[in-house]
Amino acid sequence: MLSERPISPSTLSRKDLPWQIKWDINACTKCGRCTSVCPVNAIELGVFRKREIKTSMGLSAKPVNEFSTYYGITQRTDPAYACIGCSMCNMVCPNNAIEPQRQSDSTTLQFQNNRGGQSRTRGGRRNSSESLLDQLKFIRISMLTDPALDAGRHEFEMRTLLGRVLSPENEIKCFQENGWKPPVREIYPLVIGGMSFGALSPNMWEGLQMGVAYLNEEMNMPVRICTGEGGCPPRLLRSRFLKYVILQIASGYFGWDEIIHAIPEMKEDPCAIEIKYGQGAKPGDGGLLMWYKVNKLIAAIRGVPKGVSLPSPPTHQTQYSIEESVAKMIQSMSMAWGFRVPVYPKISASSTSLAVLNNLVRNPYAAGLAIDGEDGGTGAAYNVSMNHMGHPIASNLRDCYKALCVAGAQNEIPLVAGGGIGKNGNLAANAAALMMLGASMVQIGKYVMQAGAGCLGSEKDRCNVCNIGVCPKGITSQDPRVYRRLDPEKVAERVVDFYLSFDTELRKVFAPLGRSTSLPIGMSDGLGISDKDAADRLDIKYVI
Amino acid sequence: MCRLFALTSRDPVSPMLAIDALNVMKEGHDGSGVGLYLSGLGGPWEEFKDYPILSGIFTEPGLARVFEYMADKGFRSIYSAMFKPEVEPPVGTPVRGTYASIAYKIPKEWDDLPKAVVDQRLVQMRLDLRKEGEESGQIMVFSFWPDTIMIKEVGDPLAIGEYLQLGREELYARHILAQGRQNTNYAINLYACHPFFIEGVGTMTNGENTAFIPIKEYLQSRGVTGYEGYQSDSEVFTHIAHYTTKKLGLDISAYKHIITPMNDDEMADHQDREMLLNLKRSCRKLIIDGPNCIIGCLEDGSMFMAQDRKKLRPGVVGGNPEIGMYAFSSEICGLNAAIPDRDRSKDFQPMHLDTAIVGPDCREVLQCSQKDPLALQR
Lengths: 544, 378
Ligand code: SF4
Ligand code: SF4
Prior knowledge:
The complex is a heterodimer. In chain A, 29% of the residues lie in helices and 17% in strands. By secondary structure, chain A is an alpha/beta fold. In chain B, the strands form three sheets. Chain B has a six-stranded antiparallel β-sheet, covered by helices on one side. The site of one iron/sulfur cluster (SF4) has 15 residues of chain A, from strand 1 and helix 2. One iron/sulfur cluster binds at residues 19, 21, 37-38, 40, 42-43, 83-89, 100 of chain A. Chain B: This is Glutamine amidotransferase type-2 domain-containing protein. Chain B: It comes from Pseudodesulfovibrio sediminis.
């Protein structure tokens, strides 16, 4: 080591890093597991040299220098290798000799993580733990009914409709005239939102599909999962499980060839088709699958060469305008399955959500609208998009629901809300609140990764390396050496666990509100908030 | 919880019969209000069956304003029953003015209008007057429809019955809905008092309707004149009955399919399963929740009772075909008081799938189950 290290503008000390490694020399057995597991090589074997001056008693002998060498762990301070706080090192350490610690006052790294003029990209979610959804309270507690509803004993109808529902007048007319009716699916109101096969590892994907199949076939819960862009494994397309799947088509059209070719051999129709125009985490941005994750399998399913980055355009480039796009794509996708499958667009919550919605109201084939708020997650995006772009879901959803009420179409076009549901763990409460603000169903992605597979990401910029294929848990990696860590069976088990407990919690919310025979969609009188402005904006009660 | 009592009879009877029955059930309500819906009117009204009757409460200037408004529209009054109490009102009841029911002759120009337009205009006139009254405080209108009188007042039913002399012959009616009010979630407001009425459909309910806001918003978005007000969380039941029968053209036995559709298992082997499933989906917003008992009367004089599947203590229907009188009561003691002379073994408590209907002929209780084949068109 040089006695005078070169200090440049971008030289960082350990103190500059938000995550710092605490290593205990006394407990460490020097097994080396931590350094081998660290996804970003933030730690390495350190060789330390120590000089001690030994002075003997009396004046006869002169003091001497004693040099010793010992081994330990050092943390790198190069921004490219900064510790991400994943804590994998601790997970594998037999003695708990090492762990990352968050230093909230160490903020210097963020000015340095654009090396080579490259802005930071990452996976995960917005780095803010605030949540308006968590502030909503359920206030209409029904004390007058006889008997009061009992969450544990009463029968609850926890189903919702995905698909264009006719108005009662048209329904009766259609029935009498034996006319064509848009397809409608009766599904569970918590949907696993689009996370593509390319973004998630095969093991994660398999685990999710198994969990969903189990919930449907053993627990009688019609849970649906969306594929995300990138296509769907051919075996699944040709299996009976396809009916539990919502196929997504996004602006890159990745994987669509595969799907279209499989249509003649499909045993079942898919649950629905989702046309993705935008996602809440990076509104106005397309999909992004970075080259690290495009291995042979993914390349084959997506129909692209391997090892290249796969950005999708921000919107469907073959169409001239959103009106045209919504109309034509819904039409052609419906046509592909003989008008038997609901087709709906997914957009990021934005100030133009209402325009899209108005468009859909006039389109007899539109099966719903999915809106993704700013707190949504993603596999890869620019940090700036994730942290600063987007519209909160609550007010956007509320506006859309109210617009539907004005048009008298609130039962006709289901709204699917997503983006930050359960980001602080309150899945059922957040979902119930969104339903009461007008959502027919809600979708979750990040929560599934956290609860189903132990994703380490947090709202404090922890982990978030989903984009570069080194996911320490094997969730978002296409490298078999990494995703081997994830046992699909265990993922399936966890998915079933949290769905069942979600169901119980939802009942515990709905029963005191006096709602059991139908979901409380739009039951806004049951909601209150202690923030006057939020109450006014959402048109709910202000309670303190 | 409110107490409900309804009578349907071949011959006109005094509304006091119903009030007395309410009094028997007094334990269950706090006497904070009473509402009466009368149709199939007897006595002097027999002659004026087709003339819309405006009923409400008016102050002197209010009454003058009503006459002026009606004259403007070309309506001429041909008969009226006015009642202005001379005595002190019971405790808690304010002095309001004249309780009036005035029958009007519809102007000639309206003769060529289709019935639907006439109906809608009548509703609009009622709403206009109500609105004016809400601003001035001089006018309160509860109904404006042929062969229909509505009376509402706050106070104990029996005391009000005596105060307003509800036993008068000019109030004799064949179909009577009466409700003793228990003041619940909302402030006392006469318009919030059951029964509610729209275009020949009157209903009353006890219980709490937790789905009130979504249902209200849905009904309001249907663009039907008269779907407004909503001072009580169960006012929507009347409008759903109106919507079912008049807008969707369904039989009243379908009402229960709308408000409390069957679940999948119950529907599985139904011969009209497909239609019912479609109806359940398209009318999803009208599904009620909460233990509710609903009693109502339709334009043709048929009366019905239905309840939510959560209702632990259902209402009861019974009567005597010989004397041609049936009663719908939220408690059996009310029925016993009003029609003691009946075959009690034939009393019917409609359970979670049933609707009880007594036709205008008052001959029998029709027991419809949701499991029965659909009778679609009225
Ligand atoms: S916390 Fe994670 S990134 Fe940091 S040193 Fe440990 S394993 Fe590496
Ligand atoms: S654990 Fe994997 S999926 Fe979760 S934030 Fe880290 S890299 Fe992303």
